[in-house]
Design a protein that fits this description.
This protein is an all-alpha fold and 459 residues long. The protein has helices spanning 2-23, 28-42, 47-82, 84-96, 101-112, 118-136, 140-157, 162-171, 175-203, 239-265, 272-280, 283-298, 304-337, 340-349, 357-370, 373-390, 395-405, 415-423, 429-458, and strands spanning 207-208, 214-215.
């Protein structure tokens, strides 16, 4: 009875959440907290454990991403008032050519997210997408989804991000081979994601105006608006100054990632200089350094009062993103602590199905239930590894199966879902679900099909 009770509570809770968000005047943040409390209590968790899960999930999520969001939006304001964002937009246009801005954003996200968490990368890089939208009048929906898709795909399937590395360890897969095959699997996923991002950006055509506000001009699309000119009279920082606040954090985080990998694979002691570099490369510190660089190099000639005012505007816009992201973390923690994900996964593992499909299905369900891709792939690996390895499945493809499964349908309990949609200015649940949620599901489907095909020839 206890097992069925938590599953029933989960089903009712998800229906309640969707209803509260789409059919009532209750704010998304409040709806997330209400649903988390309901599922925990209705599922039979003790009251004190429910409260501990909600507060722990809220605080745990914001502890890792909240400060970064604050720094990132403040940096975005500096980019706008200094015209650094426009300089970056011009650089990307020259590099990839007019009309290929979405490809530029996808490739940027694809590369950046290999060493960096995707939500941190999105916060840091989104000002470029916004500037490209304002400059080229290409839908920010297309550009933002292309960036988000590129980021989340490589974050999910290419080490050294923690999820794939951890899953590889459980399956005893060679990390070098996983990097190679992960990149190969990611390429068709990105192509399919880009095609949808272009279509949806046309359907939901939205651009940033000169003041950075979102507008939706009628009867326009990415295909109709491709001609634009640059105003060479505008004062802009150099390309090096414009990119430095982004490149420095990325470089520092990459160094931290390398040091961490070496400590695990070669027994490197993280002391002295290594400890200092590792500290500077933590995302919070690295992005904070980037913000300081932006303030010092990009605001020369701008009055102090104007700079402070713009930073405060950024902080205000970060508030709702932070709260809703924390609410999603609270819901995810309740679902994790209740044990419903593990219970369903173990039930699937007991059935006789294709061994390569097993880690994929378990990861898919856990991802949908509790929101964290990393938790989904690691839990899936832990449950399925003894089964699939005993049946002779290639460890690399088993690892990729678990990783790709964790991409399924990002929605209200995933922090990246809120970071992306709030940054894009999407407030309607239907628009949110048809955007980033569909992007991740397309990547999920194409990724698994690719793995199955590759396993037939190389597994």
């Amino acid at each position: 009875m206890g097992d069925s009770r938590i599953i029933i509570a989960l089903i009712i809770g998800l229906i309640l959440l969707i209803g509260l968000i789409m059919k009532t005047k209750i704010h998304t943040f409040l709806a997330l907290i209400i649903t988390a409390l309901f599922i925990g209590i209705a599922g039979g968790m003790p009251y004190d454990e429910v409260l501990a899960s909600v507060t722990g999930g809220f605080g745990g999520t914001l502890g890792s991403i909240g400060i970064i969001i604050g720094f990132g939006v403040m940096m975005g304001q500096i980019f706008e008032i200094s015209n650094a964002a426009k300089r970056m937009a011009r650089s990307f246009i020259k590099m990839f050519g007019k009309g290929r801005e979405d490809i530029a954003m996808a490739i940027t996200g694809f590369l950046v997210s290999i060493p960096i968490f995707c939500d941190s990368g999105f916060v840091v890089l989104f000002p470029i997408a916004k500037a490209l939208s304002a400059t080229t009048r290409k839908s920010v929906i297309t550009l933002g989804l292309a960036l988000a898709g590129g980021l989340v795909i490589t974050h999910t399937v290419v080490p050294p991000t923690p999820g794939p590395v951890g899953a590889a360890g459980i399956f005893e897969a060679n990390v070098g081979s996983l990097i190679l095959w992960g990149i190969i699997v990611a390429i068709p996923m990105v192509i399919a994601m880009l095609a949808y991002a272009r279509w949806y950006g046309n359907k939901l055509y939205q651009i940033a105006d000169e003041e950075g506000n979102w507008i939706r001009p009628a009867n326009q699309s990415n295909d109709q608006i491709k001609e634009y000119i640059f105003d060479d009279s505008e004062a802009m920082p150099s390309t090096a100054k414009a990119f430095m606040p982004i490149l420095v954090p990325i470089f520092l985080i990459l160094i931290n990632t390398i040091i961490g990998a070496m400590s695990k694979t070669r027994g490197l002691e993280i002391t002295g200089l290594y400890a200092a570099l590792s500290f500077l490369g933590t995302p919070i510190v690295a992005v904070g350094i980037g913000l300081i660089i932006a303030i010092l190099t990009l605001t020369r000639g701008i009055p102090r009062e104007d700079v402070i005012k713009e930073l405060e505007v950024g902080i205000q816009s970060a508030g709702i993103i932070i709260l809703v992201t924390g609410g999603g973390g609270a819901l995810g923690r309740v679902l994790t602590d209740s044990g419903v994900g593990t219970q369903i996964a173990e039930s699937i593992a007991s059935r006789n199905i294709n061994p390569l499909l097993l880690p994929f299905i378990i990861s898919t369900l856990i991802r949908f239930i509790q929101g964290s891709g990393t938790v989904a792939m690691l839990t899936s690996a832990s449950i399925s590894a003894p089964i699939v390895l005993s049946l002779g499945v290639d460890p690399v493809f088993a690892t990729l199966s678990a990783c790709v499964g964790s991409l399924f349908f990002s929605y209200f309990n995933d922090s990246m879902f809120w970071v992306v949609n709030r940054s894009l200015g999407l407030r309607e649940a239907k628009e949110q679900l048809r955007g980033y949620s569909v992007i991740t599901t397309i990547a999920w489907a194409v990724g698994f099909i690719t793995i199955v095909i590759l396993n037939m020839f190389f597994g």
